[in-house]
Specification:
312 residues; alpha/beta; Malonyl-Coenzyme A Acyl Carrier Protein, domain 2; Alpha-Beta Plaits; 2 domains; five-stranded parallel β-sheet; 13 helices; 9 strands; 15% strand
Length: 312
């Protein structure tokens, strides 16, 4: 069986939706998702430049919409995901796409909540000069000690020797000036310290909106960013989607669960690449395909077909 992976913020590139919109049914789907998010995702995903789609309130719904459009195209090729997928997991905002793939949220409800989330997180980020930096390499205990010494949080623990530190820009600069041994500190082009207490105001905003949404029990195993464990109900999934706005993303634990779940392959939905790269380092033995454009559908279909035949 297959694990479906959904990427998070930073995966977006200009024009990434354009090739998908050449496929049957995708334009109508995107129009529905645009209405739900309150954004013109067609323009943003086809002609907008890199600066325009870097904005948090734009990037988040655009990424989730692209993931769901690519899932629609994949199912048109190989049939309903219920026949071939076992696990669904998403990184940060990608967890909303994963929840939709698992049947917890409708695609429209997922985009509505992500639209609210992106706006609320962008507003929270304006309260203080905060940001995020990737810390690559170094011994885990040295990295943890360095972050604590500089009052930073490991907001994304991604596995494969990568932790994303988050906090005040002054503290991130101090970390860059005095990095852990054998580690590199790379500033990220994000607007704030996501998945930390700096995002607390956004949690309340999204929670109020989430109370109006109906969440269904997962039809696939939906893994939580909080601890990598499958959620037990739609209600728990929705609460964790809200809570992760100000809590660390433990993608390392999600990958560990996938690795031990018995799946033979993973397909990263568009705009794919980042999670497939992490999987190659941390989920050895699990074959991966990243959907970057419709040209990758054949490879994904082949992986799904082979995986399904192996389980018969």
């Amino acid at each position: 069986m297959i694990a479906l992976l959904s990427p998070g913020q930073g995966a977006q590139t200009p024009g990434m939706l354009a090739p998908w919109l050449e496929l049957d049914g995708t334009t109508d789907l995107l129009a529905e998702l645009s209405d739900a998010a309150g954004l013109d995702l067609h323009t943003l995903g086809t002609t907008a430049d890199a600066e325009a789609i870097k904005d948090t309130k734009v990037a988040q719904p655009l990424i989730v919409a692209t993931s769901l459009v690519s899932l629609h195209a994949l199912e048109a090729r190989v049939g309903a995901r219920s026949a071939w997928a076992q696990v669904s997991a998403g990184h940060s905002v990608g967890e909303f796409a994963a929840a939709a793939a698992a049947g917890v949220l409708s695609a429209k409800d997922a985009l509505h909540l992500v639209g609210v989330r992106g706006r609320a997180m962008a507003e929270a980020a304006e309260a203080a000069p905060t940001g995020m930096s990737a810390v690559v390499g170094g011994a885990p205990e040295d990295v943890e000690a360095a972050l604590a010494a500089h009052h930073l949080v490991g907001a994304n623990v991604n596995g494969g020797g990568q932790v994303v530190a988050a906090g005040l820009l002054s503290d991130l600069q101090a970390l860059a000036d005095d990095p852990p041994a054998r580690a590199r500190v790379i500033p990220l082009a994000v607007a704030g310290a996501f998945h930390t207490d700096h995002m607390a105001p956004a949690v309340q905003t999204v929670r109020s909106e989430a109370e109006q949404v109906t969440a269904h029990d997962p039809q696939l195993q939906l893994l939580s960013n909080a601890d990598g464990a499958p959620v037990s109900s739609g209600g728990q999934a929705l609460e964790r989607l809200v809570a992760q706005i100000s809590s660390p993303v433990r993608w390392d634990l999600c990958q560990a669960t996938i690795r031990h779940s018995g799946v033979s392959g993973a397909v990263e939905l568009a705009p794919g690449g980042v999670l497939a790269g992490l999987a190659r380092r941390s989920m050895r033995g699990v074959e991966t395909v990243a959907l970057k454009s419709p040209d990758d559908l054949d490879a994904a279909a082949d992986l799904i077909t082979r995986s399904t035949e192996e389980t018969r």
